[in-house]
Amino acid sequence: MELILRQIRDNLTIKLPDYDPGVGNPGGHPFALIGIEENPFSGVVGEFRYQFEGEEDLLHLMVMRCDCEPLTPQEGQQVASFVLRGLPSSLIWLRPGQRSQHFYFGHDELLSNLQL
Question: Which of 18, 79, 107, 114 has the fewest Cβ atoms within 10 angstroms?
Answer without folding.
Answer: 18
